[in-house]
Amino acid sequence: MSKRPSILALCASLLAVGLRAAAQTDPLPSWNDGPAKKAIVEFVQATTTQGSPKFVPPEERIATFDQDGTLWVEDPMYSQVVYCLDRVPAVVNAKPELAKVEPFKTVLSGNREAMAKLSMNDLFKILAATLSGMSVDEFRAEARKWLDTARDTRWKRPYTELTYLPMLEVLKYLRANGYKTYIVTGGGQDFVRVYAEGVYGIPPEQVVGTVGATKYGYDKAGKPVLTKEPKLLLNDDNAGKPEGIHMMIGRRPSAAFGNSIGDRQMLEYTKAGDGARLAMLLLHDDAEREYAYGPARGLPNTKVGTFPQALYDEATKQGWVVIGMKNDWKRVFAFDGGHS
Amino acid sequence: MSKRPSILALCASLLAVGLRAAAQTDPLPSWNDGPAKKAIVEFVQATTTQGSPKFVPPEERIATFDQDGTLWVEDPMYSQVVYCLDRVPAVVNAKPELAKVEPFKTVLSGNREAMAKLSMNDLFKILAATLSGMSVDEFRAEARKWLDTARDTRWKRPYTELTYLPMLEVLKYLRANGYKTYIVTGGGQDFVRVYAEGVYGIPPEQVVGTVGATKYGYDKAGKPVLTKEPKLLLNDDNAGKPEGIHMMIGRRPSAAFGNSIGDRQMLEYTKAGDGARLAMLLLHDDAEREYAYGPARGLPNTKVGTFPQALYDEATKQGWVVIGMKNDWKRVFAFDGGHS
Question: Which helix (H) or strand (E) holds A230?
Fold first, then answer.
């Protein structure tokens, strides 16, 4: 035995002291005291305190987060849909014959009213045309460029700033307590991976999303290249979320956070596990600071059915904790004033 | 500012001292000095020494390992194939009509010669019947039970003991230097996940394998259940390996280890990235301590084409490093004597 174990042991003790000191400061300063904040803190303490009957070994600490509407703003339109619409001119430029074909013709017209009437089938055509046919490196570069320049219509800010500060605190708090944090999104896995590490500290391998196939081949110089194909491998929404979690993680999460009917099965699956489980549902009820929709009214027509009252009734029935944005959050965004 | 940063800083210094002390002992004691060992050590030093022109940031340190034949014995038959054959009686018990249908009839006969003549198509039928139709929890329990009791024909040991000690050292050495180690296997992802954590210290979320679909539903008591379906989502072999790596990890590995033609694209894809890249190909040339096959002769008939001379010629061409089991490894298994 060398000196190493004793140095490491000393180090572990010092780390423990450091972590205890950290625990005495509020890990969730943007949250008001209330049942939601209490549920998070109690869950973390119960699952990470050695000797607790609900202790979860570090390697099993998995927490999953829906992205649109749970970690950042999804209204009035998913940012990835905006990206795809913005990409249409470039796609038509490369394939001019599309200019006269629907739904591309309508998108090119710029007529927002006509665009709002496009069907789901039209939308899939647009997604397929704008999200496939290029290498994964080209796709990453295009998406990065768009994220750097695009601005939302209300706050005139990059989409990557429209993250909820209280949820960023939850991510950090869980990670500081040994949890691996995952995004589990209906959005495109490759798209969300472009910014998840910079915005949330979540690396690409911890982003589970809707997956399109790629095809391995070679470019003109003979270098290997992965090309994005218009073939769906996993629709990571609804029942696809627990299926995607099994495929990508292989463990049932201890905690899950969502906000819409697409998260129902993920919350249910998480909560059905043994031991301590935390399932949380974010209610958008703050028309002033963000938006109010679903049971909180003001639901845009395009989203009828996505936030039914029944989902919130189920929260009570299944023991999910509802986060009310209006009352539970002291601040919504990092940029919206308040003390930082 | 509390006391915490200074404690953490002190801790970091102590850890650094500890790691330097550790670095002075040989991290690969089961390897003979030679080009293979040298390549591994130089790669790790080049990519993890701050200020090195080939430095790789910790979050980008990804190393991928084929499993059968690279981390443990694959001869004379993949352990998962043995598992599937062993499961046939239970499957026929549940569905007695299969007893008279091929290929189940042949498997039940126990006639090894007849079984060796089964076609790939027959094998797929057996895999589908034995690897789907149950919940993921039931599958895990069955596989665990088999792994605990099954013994290989040569050493009469559990398959989980047939791991290569030198490769276990490489896994640990890479992890001690901040690498995330992944298995990337043509074997079933759910099967390998059952033992990867215990055997290799590789958690389920770092096992990339051939993926069958699951279906989310409910059991009789109304509890959520994921059922394994006979539907292939990813054939994680050949070109499927880089495709699977992109899907599951989303980054190109810095290092990759394989042993057969099924690993060719993974090695090629890894090596084609910028900066320092390590691609290694294990040659089974040790008939005495393990097996000799491929260019080293003694290739079982069932595997013709899997280890062609052309693969080893390509290693030279592409700058992959060949590991010769006979000369590069001081010891092969933890149980085969030698000093531990």
Answer: strand A224-234
Nearest to B67 by CA among B249, B254, B241: B241
Which chain A residue shows the shortest CA-CA distance from B318? A223
- Per residue in A300-337, pLDDT (tens digit) is 444 557 888 889 999 999 999 999 999 999 999 999 86
Strand partners, A210: A188
Helix (H) or strand (E) holding A136: helix A136-149
Report the distance separating Cα A126 and Cα B8, nearest Å.
50
A298 pLDDT band, cuts 50/70/90, is very low
Dig out the tokens for A136 from the structure: 């994964």
pLDDT category of residue A10 using cuts at 50, 70 and 90: low
Chain B interface includes A233 (CB < 8 A): yes
Query: Best of A185, A197, A226, A268 to disrupt the B interface by mutation (most B CBs within 10 Å)?
Result: A226
**What is the DSSP secondary-structure string of B176-221?**
HTTPEEEEEEEEEHHHHHHHHHHHHS--GGGEEEEEEEEEEEE-TT
Residue A183, amino acid: I
> Which 173-212 residues of chain A touch chain B by CB within 8 A?
180, 189-190, 193, 197, 203-205, 207, 211
* ipTM > 0.95 (yes/no): no
Q: What is the pLDDT of residue A24?
A: 67
Q: Residue B303 in 3-state DSSP?
A: helix
Instruction: Assess B216–A contact: CB distance below 8 Å, yes or no.
Output: yes
Question: In Å, what is the CA distance from B217 to each residue of A259, B125, B142, B224?
Answer: 21, 25, 21, 6
Partners of residue A17 in chain B, C-beta under 8 Å: 7
Within 8 A by CB and 6+ apart from B127, the residues are B84, B188
Please work out, in degrees rounded to the nearest 5, the angle formed at the alpha carbon of residue B228 by the alpha carbons of B223 and B231: 140
Q: Please say whether the dihedral angle defined by the alpha carbons of residues A211, A212, A218 and A223, taken in this order, is positive or negative.
A: negative
Q: Per the CB < 8 Å rule, is A251 touching B4? A: no
Angstrom distance (rounded) from CA B39 to CA B35: 6
The CA distance from A180 to the nearest CA of chain B, in Å, is: 11
Q: Which two tokens stand for residue B220?
A: 């009789």
Q: Is the peptide bond before A35 cis (omega within 30 degrees of 0)?
A: no
CB A264 within 8 A of CB A238: yes
Model confidence pLDDT, tens digit, residues A73-98: 998 888 998 999 999 999 999 999 99
B276 within 8 A of B315, measured Cβ to Cβ: no
Name residue B324's beta-bridge partners: B283
Q: What angle do CA B266, B234, B224 make, to 5 degrees?
A: 135
